[in-house]
Specification:
By secondary structure, this protein is of the alpha+beta class. The chain has helices at about 5-10, 40, 70-105, and strands at about 15, 35, 50-55, 60-65. The chain is elongated and about 80 Å long.
Amino acid sequence: DFTDGLSTVLKLRPRAYTYNGRGGPGYDDADTHIGFVAQEAEPVAPYLVQTGVGVIGGAEVGDFKYYQGHALPFIIVNAIKEQQKQIEELKAENSALKNRIEILENK
């Protein structure tokens, strides 16, 4: 089973960025984009990053890093499940504490 979840989400850093003009054709250098930087995501979740051939500054490189978000929805599902479990545990603890307070106040 795939178990990455909340701890992975907490380590990922969404970024607003613009391309620097060195990526070549196909990159929108004018607009601001939202996403993850592959080099920052790789240590957290290596399966979110693909390394391949790319172009930087007009030169082809063989170690171009691409962010691949195919697994992100599954990470988020696991994170939600973890948080829901924490919520349920806190609700139970809160209920138990309320009961203790009620007992103490009625003595």
